[in-house]
Every structure is written in C-alpha cells, then in structure tokens.
Structures
1.
Amino acid sequence: MAHAFLSKRIVTPQGTQPGALLVEDGTIRAVCRPSEVPADAIIHDCGNDALLPGLVDTHVHINQPGRTEWEGFRTATRAAAAGGYTTLIDMPLNCLPETTTVAALEQKRNAAKGECFIDWATWGGAVANNQQQILPLADAGVLGFKCFLIYPGCDGFTMIDQQQLEAALPSIAQSGLPLLVHAELAGPIDAATQRLANADWRRYETYLASRPDEAELQAIRLMIRLCRQYSFRLHIVHLSTALALSELKAARREGLPLTVETCPHYLHFAAEDIPDGATLLKCAPPIRSKENQRALWRGLHDGTIDMIVTDHSPCPPAMKRIDTGRFDQAWGGIASLPLALSIIHTDSSHRGGTLEDITRWMSTAPAALAGLAHRAGSLQSGRDANFILFDTETEFTVTLDKLHYRHTISPYMGETLRGVVKATYLRGEPVYRNGIFASTPSGREVKL
C-alpha cells in the first residue's frame, strides 16, 4: 500500500516544491503532483510542515561497547531521531575496544543489535600500528577511516605520526574509502601550553590560547601534501579555524579529492561570549572568535566547507569539571544531536540560508562522504524513505526534556531556537512523532 505525504515544501535536489512524497514498501517511489497520487494511496497531509530528507551525521561518538555509561546506541539514536537524523556514522574511538580491528568491529555490531532507533554504520580507526588491518576493515564493511595527528584523549586509540600514516596511506587509497583527519599538530599546542604553565585555567582565554590556529593550519597543510602524493580521499573533520579556508579552496581548485566539515558549536558560539569556567563549551579544536565564526559561515555558503556534523561527544557530567571550571581538566566534547537542526536553522536564517542549504550541509553532503548517496541524503525515487517533517516557524526553549541523550547537560540550555522536528520517518515508518518514540527500535547497520 502506497502512502502519500502532502506538503507545500518538499526539499528535493531540484529545489523546494509543493507536491506529494510517494512512499511504498519503505522506499521513495516519486515526488509528484497531488493529482498524480494513486487513488488507493493513504494520504498524510503535512500542512505547513516542510519535508526534508532525513539528516545524516558522519561524526558521532556513541561510545558503545565499553563506555556505555557515557552514551550508547539506544540513547544516541533516540536523541538523533528527535533531532531529525536517520543515519549516524560512529567514530572508532571512545568505545572499548576501539574499532581498529575486524574483531572489534564485530563486537560493536553485537552491541548495536536491537538497540538502534535509526540506521547506523561505523568508521574504522587508522592508528599507530594497525596498517595491516586497513584493507580487512574495509572488506568487513567500515565506511572509511579516522585518524588523529595528536593525542586524542583516550589511551587506547593512538595518534598516528607522519611515518606511520604514510605506511597506511597506500592501503587507504587502495580501499577507495575516505580518511577523516583530526587536523591538529602537537608542536604548536605543546609550545603554547608551556608558555601558559602559570596561567589561570578557569579562563576561556587561556584554553583558547593553548590550541592556536597554527596547530590546525600546519596539520591541514601536511594532509594536503599527502593527499597530493598518495591520491586518497581526504576529509578534514570539525574545522575550527577560518584561516585555513584559502588553502582548502586552493587545494579544491587543484582537483584534490578533499571535503571539509564544521560543527554547530563553531557556528553558534563565539569565544568573546564564553564565560570563564564554562567548561560545557570545551571542545577541540576550540571555539574561536566572532570574526572567525563569520568566516566559517562564508565558507559554507561558498562551498569551501561541505557539511555540518555534530561531533556529538558526550561524557558523564563529572568529567566536564563544572565544579572546578578548569578547562585543562575538563573533557572536551559537546553533545547536540537533538538540537543541531534547530540551531543551524535559527542561525542560518539570519544569514540568508535556505532549507536547500541546510539539506545539502546536513544530509546530502554527509551521505556522499559516507558512500550512502544511493540510499540516503535526498528525496529521490529509489532512495530509502527516510525523511522528516520540520516546522520552520515554531520557537522553543532548550530544556532538559528536549535532550534525550544519556546525560542531559548542554551549553545550549535555556536558549530559544526556531524550528521543530515534528516527526522522523525511517523507511516510511515513524520512529519519532510529536514527542513520542517508536516502541521498538528498527534501525540497522547500513553498508556500501
């Protein structure tokens, strides 16, 4: 039986248009005129709500198995469904064991069984000593690889130096899968931290100075050189410094296979407004200045930055060290899965952004990075019927009951945002609607 979802605003690759989204057997059959809907179809009138493809987040720390007390598949995917996401790609660290071997990948799959409200997949890790695991992980179904050029904060996932990385790059290139890089180098950070040895670590200014733009710039320059040499797909995660935009743009003009992401917190918060002791806003790389933020938005609009992903990185509240307010002691990570769409819609609307822009940044481009464009990221015939109903006009205040992830702390608490996810559909079935979740998780691992 076909279902037809009628809306005045369906966001398609051809633009936003009125019509009907025709769904049958979990698949999009067509975006058509209401007059073309089959007579026996079940009609769903979505009123003034916009229909967008389900969001895809390629940068999420689910932390299960091993650190499920931080987050887990059930809580992360519930929070994501409430935020309009239908696919999450899990990072290979903060879980135990880290996803750096095929055996660890199978443990993650076992942990996810029956727990996911939306679809998921995972990246593999490229670490100091697992070069021989790269191709087996690719064959086993990871969608790409993540590496850190600096200590990542958890001992089990080792950073990778240039020599170790170059030993892995031929296999990464052979796999055809992307390499996602945390692009900070230790040299500038170590030097800055030494200079700040006697500084007041409750001050945000101190933390910001400890992770200078130069750490990102040097790392990005290194990765562009290696991309040119080894011809692999390079993806820069959570770009924080706008000073790198010109070099990224030049690398693109050169034809290098390069993509770039940034995150809601870099686009919403600015260093000048962060109070001392506000460790809920610690992340790495750090949130920088208002002028830097404006330049990141320009980079999104001109296409230098491809996508917006959350870097959802939760932890138990005690690890944020709200008690001491010391940025050097606090865990670096911000959770935003249920709020990201509303944050970006609120902020982009002040900058001339459209629903088409948001769809490209938060659905189409991440799906392409993960190799899932054939099934996710756009409302087109033959794709999975993953879509959301989005009320673009209603405002709400961020309160505890809006968060849904395991530990309900947030630097967005009390803010007023515009745009509410009314419903999230996975393969044509509602997994979240008007504040109520499906009773049974129906998400599954998606593969290339």
2.
Amino acid sequence: MSLGNRKDVRRSNLIMVLEAVFIGYIGYLTFELITQFFGNLTTSLTDLLTSIGVFTFLVVLSALSVGLYETKLRETFRGIIRRIFVSVALGYFVMEILSSTVMTHIKIHQYFLPIFAGSTIIALVILRYFVNRLGILGLGQTKIVVIGAGERASIIEKRMRREVDRVGFELLGFIPIPGDNREEGIQNEKLIHVKIDENFRNFVSDNDIDEVVIACDQRRGTLPVEILFDCRLRGIEVTDLLDFMERETGQIVVNLMYPSWVIYSNGFNSQNYLRDALDYAVNCILATIVLALAWPFMLLTAIIIFFEDVRNSKASIFYKQERVGLNGKLFKIIKFRSMRPDAEKDGAKWATTNDSRVTKIGQFIRKYRIDELPQLLNIFRGEMSFIGPRPERPQFVEQLIREIPYYNQRHNVKPGLAGWAQLNYPYGASVEDSMEKLKFDLYYVKHQSLMLDILILIRTVEVVLFGKGR
C-alpha cells in the first residue's frame, strides 16, 4: 500500500471514529432531553449505554456499507445526505427488530430511539458539511490532473484562484497538448510536460491520480481515447471541464457550452415530480409564515415611503412592473417603491450600485431586501416562488436572449424572491453581468431540489440579517 493510500485509510478511520463519538454524544443528549420533559426515568446506566452503543454500531456499519467511508468518495452534498439518511434508517430498522426480540430486557422511553435517530441525521449532516465541503481532515480530497493548458483550461485558473476554491481536490498541474491556445491559456499554474501515451499511464499510477479533467481546446485528433479508456477501467474518473466546473463552483460555464454536452446532460427541466406537485402549497405556507412575521415592518415601510416621497409626488407606495415569468409568461411584479417616480422618464435602464434615482428609504430597504416583501402577493397568485432566478424585464430579456446563448432556459422554472445567482454574484447592471448570473441561474435550474432550496433560504436569511443585499 502506498503512502498516499495509507493516509487515506487513516483519514477514513478517523472520520468513522469521530462520527461514532458524535452519535454516542447525541444519544446522551437525547436521554437528557427526554428526562427534562418526562421527569426521572427508570432506565439504568447499563441499559442506556447498551442502547446507545448498539445503535451507534448499527449506524456506523450501515454507513460503511453504503460507502460513506470510501477514501475518495466523489459525491454531491445532496448525495451524501441521502446516504446518511439511508444509514440511520437502516440502523433504526434493525434496532427496532432487536428491541422487540433479543433486547426485550432493556427498558427505555418509547420516544428515545425516534428522537435519537432524527437528531443523528441532523448531527451527521452538519458534521459532513464541515468535513467534506470545507476539506477538514482532507476526506474526499482527490488528486487531479488537467489535460489541456489553453484557453478552455484557463477558466480553472481564473475562476478558482483562491485556496478555499480548491479544498475538495489537489490540483497537480496542467498538461499542454497540441492545439491549445497557449497565448490565452494557463499563465501562473504548474505545467506538466508528459506525453499522453504510455508515459501518461505511468504518471497517473506513480502519482495516485484520482481524476483526469479534459480541458483541451481541440479534441479531434488530440485526445488519446485508448489511454483514457484504460484510466476509466482502472477506476480513475475522466471528467469534462464543464462537468468539473459545475460540480466544484456551483455554476454552468455558459460561454464554454457545446451542443453535445447539453444533449447528454440531464437537461434543464426538473425531474423531481413530488417537489413540483407540492410547489404551490409549500410556497403559500412559507409566504403565510413570512407575512405573519414581517407585516409590522411592511406597514412601517409603507408609512415612511408615504411621508418621504409619495405625499408630495402623489405616486403609489407600491411599484408595479412587468416581468418575464415561467415559460416566458408576463406578469406584474409588486415592490415597495425605492426610486423616485420619474426614475424612468428616459426609458428603461439597468439599476446600478449607488444609483442616484434611489431614495433615502429606498437605499435602506434595498440593502435589507424589505422592498421585495410585497412579492409575497405574487407568490400567492402562483406567479413566483420563494426560490428561483430573479425575474427580468421583457425589454432586457429580448436583448439578453439575442446576445447570450441559452438565456431563455432560465424561464424553465418560476422566478423567485431569492436565487442562487443573487447569493454568488454581486449586483449586476450589464449584459456581461447577466452572463455571469446566468451561469448560476442555469445551475439552479439544472439542480433544483429541496436541499438546494433550503441552502439558499438559509443563506438568504444571513444576507437579510447582516445587510449584505446584492
């Protein structure tokens, strides 16, 4: 076993022990919680330790069986959550069988095991977030080499400059090949001069490479199919640059897309039929909760807008504007007025940072997203969702569809109050900015799920509370 493999095994063993300790501690906290609610229980220390120990063993064993401790687990965070849920569910199922057969002598509260199992899922998800997503312990980190050092490969250098962008992998370097545009290519990264032949096979083996990223400018006649085929047979991942960037950065690099990649991908339509069926009901429930909490702030905002601007101008407190919604259907968006009534006397204009047309109260309510709250009515009408790409004006959409490829695909889902692009890209006011935001919008359209929606909601709350509005 190589030194690298021994390190990987140690990391996996460490995370397994760490999770076992976590589960045991959660079991203790669960018992203390039940004791607080139901008074002193007659459970002996031996029975408690036995229950916690057996359940911990079953969950860790299940996690081992579903691959959660594989040294190079290449899985999305959503996939990891699914595996955790399956592991705990299997452990819970077996524990229930044991409790009713061979462990009948153990007396413990009936709510202990269900609460223990639910809390374990939450605890393991949080732990795995820090371990896998932030690169703690190096678990899940892979060794990567990039074939290509030209213009396409340079997107990695430009988009993933920071160390935090590369916590999930170790990039050994870029291999220049014939056909690469070196003038627009890699400038500051390490270049590896090795021929893509038998020498490459040896290079991959000697350096314990886990993944090869294909990022060459010219594919025809330059890619050694037999060598790459051999890599796949040996369990080494061979990944297209677009898939790599999508996985690691949470965006789709629109300007590098090509038709065959779109054809062989899973498309830009949701396949989550249960989520689609419950979409309106869930959004209405969330809108009702937010309205119940936010109406005092909305009332106060309306009063301030009236006295600052509306009282003299006779304009409306609310601002209605036509936007493009699901499948290109037009609707009227509703917002608190944050600009002067004559803001568009010269026609539609992009909003900009420090826009002189914005009123004093407008600056504040934009910073904390209060101006967006009247859109709860759009949600009740079924025109918008809580999460989705921000709706754009039809005048701009016509221009953007002409100038940006695949722009119209963002209308495959309902527009939303909050979006993946708003969290990942600063305020934009140009075609170029729209291109950058589209990369995140298409990622959301392609990967829309309940877990991604929850992540966006949590991060949006942080934006609102700390005034990081974009």
3.
Amino acid sequence: MTTETPSEPLIFNPFTPDFMSDPYPHYAELRRHVPVHEHPGGFWMLSRYEDVSALMRSGLSVEQRHVAPGPFRDAYARAGVTDEPRLKGLALLDRDAPDHTRLRKLVTMAFTARAVNAMEGEIRSLVDEALDRIAADGGGDLVEALAFPLPFTVISRMLGMPPTDTVRMRTLTHTLMRSVEPTTDPEVMRAVEAADAELFDIVGEAVDWKRQNPADDLLTALITAEDHGDVLSRDELIAQVTMLYVAGHETTVNLISGGTLALLRNPGQLRLLRDKPELEQNAIEELLRYDAPVHNSRRITLEPYEVGGHEIPPGSFILANLAGANRDESYFGPDAEELRLDRENARRHVSFGGGMHLCLGAALARIEGRVAIGGLVRRFPGLELAGEVEWNGLLSLRGAARLPIRV
C-alpha cells in the first residue's frame, strides 16, 4: 500500500484507458489522499467507509431538483431536457420523505420477504437449465448464458409481466441506467429521456392489461396495495414497477458476472468455496463487497454538510463511492483489497446503500447470486476464463458486457 503524496492534485478521472478494466487503484488513491473530494466538474465525492456509510444513513435528499445552479443544471438546460428525467421523478429511489415513506410502505406490502423467498425454487430451476446449456456448449458468454437472463426472467415472472420484446427492453433499461452516471453529455441525456418515456409507455400498457387480467403476481399485488385508503396512482404504479423491473435485473447481472470473475481470478478462494459450501452465504457478501454491482450512489445537500473537516454547501451533488468504501483498509483491515470469502465482517459492505434508501431488492439479489454462482462453481470443476472480458462502459453500474468462459 502506497502512502506517498501525489506530485499533482488528484481528481476523480474515470476516463483513463485502464480505469474500466480496474478502477480500484484509482479509488484507493482518492480514498487515501482526497477522501472528501471537490471535483472541478461541480460535484463532491466521498470514498472512506465511515463517511460513505454515514452519508447513506443521513437522510439527505435524492431529488435532483435540489441541486444548486451549476454544471449539472446547466448541462440539462443545454441538452434541452428536464433535470428530473427518470420515471417522472416518482420512483422510490428518486423521492425524499414523506413521499418515499408512503411509496415504500405501499410497495413493500406487495414485494414481501415471503414473495421473494418463494422464488428460490424457480431460481434453482432456471439456473439448472442455464447450466445444462452451458455444459452442452462447453462454455460461452456467461453474461448472455446466465448473468442476464436469470434475473431478467425472475423479475418478469414475479411481476407477471405480459410478453414483451426482450431485446428492446434490454436496450431501453441499459440506456435508462445511464441516468445514474455522473455525466453532462447532452447526447446521453437526450437518449435517457427518450428511453425513459418509451419504458414508461410500455410498462403503462402492461399495468392497464394487468388490471383487466389480475393474477397471483407482484404486479397485481401492487395494483391492489392499499394503506388506509391510500393507493398508488397510475403514474406512481408505473414508476415503481419500472424501477423494480430495471433494478431487479441490471444490478444482479453485475453481481453474477463480477462475482464469477473475482473467483476465477482468485483460484484459491474458488477452491475454498468448492470445498466449503457452507461458506456460500458469506461468500456472496464478500463478493458484493469486493466488487460492488453499483459503484456510486448520490445525495444532495439541503443545508451545510460537515464531513472530514470540510463543509459541503447546500445544493451540492455528492457522489458516494460505494465500491471504494468497500475496500477501505481503515474499516476492513489491511487485506481489504483482497478477496477473502470467510471475512467475518463482509456483510458490512455498503453495496446496497443504506438508510431509508437501502436497496429494496437486496434479498432477491442475494438469493440469485448465491444460487447462480454456487451452482456454477459446483457444476464445473474445470471452469476457467476463455478470453478477454469486455466491459459495459458504465461508471456507476460498471460490469462485464461479455465474460467468456470454458467449462
């Protein structure tokens, strides 16, 4: 571990050639030298574990309308789009209390732990089918063969979505996820706004169809969810369903592919998981810590925010570097940069955020990751990489676009 002071001022720079293949050395430098980082692009970035964890629990705003005039607001204006493009700003992850409290209560009435746990048998069947195909092919692209179709199929079946154009939905959801990227690119902003509008219409049609064709599924439960006379409006319902649909598979793709890649690059830990299947649950927590499916989360200050000897002014956009915080040596110890499946405090990672915005689908992601990765490594003792990893080009949702394997 280096403690030397950089010769030039450090800034968060994700556009270097080697960043996408491995951003963690850059995160480490930021964490050690500028853990509270005022970026010249008009935002702040926190990367120490304690600072990030406190920010996630702070109750600060997530509503982009509170960002003060500056580079971000100006970029939206120049692009000719609204500064709140995603799902009309109605999704849970875009709302503050008390709206968030009301919406989450209604959504959790349908998206229950019982409903999630009931999916494990179906998840196992889907994984077994995917592994059979991989075995027959002798390998292939893990993203296409398992990491994407598994969570996409699971959330589609849970919701009870009518048949859709899977390829188009995948394209739209991938584009929509660029809305969580720290970008001021007008072309990207316009693409996000267009994808958002199209997804809203597609899911709106599914909601209307489901009202006429109710069933024992999550979408019907959301339609009928009621709390003392309070129900979700049509736009609120569409926003929550779209959020569940998108977040319900996009992040889990990264967990399955990133977790598998981490094991393949750490053969000693891969052998440990095969030898000690009882480590499976803790292994998923460590894989979540080691390479977070979501690298950054954001908050917006409504009043001065004190952190690390700095006062961040009201209206500031703060990027919480979840992935960097997960490897903070001051919290996880001197081996924080290493993968260790028996790590005792692995579950203390911040990969699912925290506070009132703790990821609603965390339990489902854990089950999918455990069943998929556990099944993969047990089924194929000769599992190995079969080529170079291709990355998806995203910063906050960095993950593999293609992961070639041989079995």
4.
Amino acid sequence: MNTKILFRSVLLFFFCIVKMNAQEVLTIENALKIALENNFEIKLASNNLAINKTNVTVGNAGMLPKLTATLVDANSIQNSSQTRQDGTITALDNAKNNSLNYGVGLNWTVFDGFKMFAKLDQLKELQKFGEAQLKHTIILKISTVNAVYFDLVQQQQQLAALDTTIVISTQRLTLAQNRFNIGKASKLEVLNAQVDLNTDKVTLLRQKESYANRKIALNQILARDPKVDFKVVDEVTVDDKLVLAELMALAEKQNPQLESEIINKRVSELQLKQIKGERYPTLNLTSGYNFFESQSSLGFTSESSARGLNYGFRASLNVFDGFAQNRNEKIAKIQIENSKIAIEQQSLLLNSELSTAFQTYLTNLELIDLEQINETIAKQNLRITVDKFRIGTITTLEFRTAQLNYINAKVRYSNAQFQAKLSEIALKELAGNMSF
C-alpha cells in the first residue's frame, strides 16, 4: 500500500475515533450560567445584599413611632403589722396583696436634628454598597471562569497537537521498520524511532493528566461534581477591538471597587450629618392608655383602681458634653478626607493597571499573528520533511527536528491565543464590563 495513503488512512481513523467518543461540549456561556447559579461566593454576596435591602426602611431609620404593650401582675402573701400614730397596732397573718397594671404606650421622636433622614439615606447607600460588592463578586467569578475555561481550551489544543505527533511518530517507526526489513536502513534508525515514539507517549500522558486536572478545577469553580465529564470548544476567540480610552471611561463609571470607594465617601458624609444633628434639640411625643387595679388585706385602702389616657412630650438639648461633639465632628471630617484620598488612590491604580494590561494586550495580539505564521511555516516544513524521509533523502535527526518544530509552533500559537484572551479578560474586569 502507498505510504501516503496509509498515513491519511491512519489520520482519518484517528479523527473518527475522537468524534465517536466526543463528550458533550460545554460552552463558555453555559459554564458562566452554571457558575452564577451555583457559586457559593455569589450566594453569600446575594444574601448580604438582601440584608442591606431589608434594612432600608423608615422604621429602621427611626421615623416611625414605637407602640409598646405592657402587663404587670404582682401578688404577695405576707405576715403584716401596722402601728398607727395613736399606738393602735393592726396585724394580719397571710395578708394578700394584689396589683394588676396593663396598657399601651406610644413614644414617637418627631424631631432629632434631621438625623433620621440622614440615617435613611445612609441605609440606602449601604444597599448600593452591597450591590457594588455583589457586582464585584460576579465580575471576579466571570473572570475566573473565563480564565480557567480558556486555559482548558489551550490544554485541549495541546492535547490534539500531541495526538498528531503520536500518529506521525508511529508512521515514522513503521517506515523505519519497513526500510530495515528490505535492508535500506540500520537497526539504529528503528530504535531511534521507537525511543522518540515512547517519548511522545510520555508527553501525551502528562498532557492528559494536566487536561484532566483542569477539568476538575473548572467543575469545582462551577460548584458541581468534579467527576462530571465534558469537552470545551476548540478555538479561543479574542476580542481585538478594545480601545484604551473607552475602557478607562467605562472603568470610571462602573468599576465596582472604585464605585465602592465613592459610596464609602457618601456614607462618611451622611455620618457627619448625623453627628451634627446632635446640636439640635430632640422632641419626643408620648402617650398611652393604662389600667391599674390593686387589692390589699391590710391598710387604710382595701381596693383601688384607675384607668385612662396619658400624654405629653419631652424635649432635650445637648448643652455641654465635654467637647465630645466637636471631637466627633472633627473625626467624621477626617474620615471624609480619607475617603477622598481612597478614591484618588483607587482611580490612579485603576488607570495604571489598565494602561499596563492594555500594553500586554497589544503585544499578545501581535504574538498571535506571528505565531500563526510560524505554525504555517512549520507545518509546510514538516510536510516536505515527511516526503523526503519517505524517499530516504534526510536523516532521522532532521525528521525529528522538523516534527518537534511543528509541535512547538502549535503549542506557542495556542499559548499566544490564551495569553491574549487573559489580557482581554483582565481589561474587561478592570473596566467592570465582564458580560456573558
């Protein structure tokens, strides 16, 4: 049989086997959907946000009245004696005394120096902070899933490249054995081909191990059984249209870390507003309806009762507190200043990270083009080398060099795509623009 036809038949058989045994393909969209539904960090951040939302009420801010119902039933049995002014002594053993007091009371702070309004605004800002934290958690998780997923794509591409080199090395061994059988090659050529084939098999086993471990890592991130088997897509698609100025503009608006610092500044300002409210008077309205009844076995009054409405108000004003008010206001102003510094620091850090990541992104895009050209050249060189080896015009060392050059070129091209994808992910993460 013609060797070229045999080689093509082996490749066709190999790819048919791969196709028949293919697992279900997990797309990046499905991986992100599973992660967002199952991930524990996202669930915790969602619950924290739910707590913040629950706290945003006028009652929690102190704007609503408090209504309290009370019931007091007191009883006693005592040996009692009383001595009056005229010397008369009255005594009674096991004297029973009973009192019953119940009713409802209302307490309503109608003015507290506008502190309650500042408190409500602060609760709303804390809700926004929780939303920013949830967004940050989701973006980090999307970024992590993307990175691990496309690392797995790279591992899968390298696995396919090593599968190809096994086929080539097997063909080389077959040709060497045939040449030896007809006396056109030495035993050394056969042994070298066998050693190289075994080396390729060892490399393939290591790559399979790495590939399986990355699958387990992705399943862990998706919070599902690590034994779940799947395949990923065969290509890495890189967004090569990113613009630094647009990314910086997006980051200023929606980067969750910068957003959190801005919210912290607003919270500090509202805290100062509440502290300043201590300089104003506080006005409370009080009211209630009570019932009282008492019985006594000894004394001037054996039974008494009362019921009715009571109402009034209470006003208070902090006149002097040892300069604590001034001290608290100064501390609150310093905290506001710290918040401003934190915003400036985060903004500068964000722009620096974006600039650095964008330069890496541009370099990786150029490397993709260069490595793609190298792979094409290496593939052509290998094809020519196989033909020359078949007719015996080159040495086994030259054949092996061309084979390794092709495999290394494929691996470098795959790695260049992966590194460019990581740069894209980093830029979109910083810009707060990780969508799925």
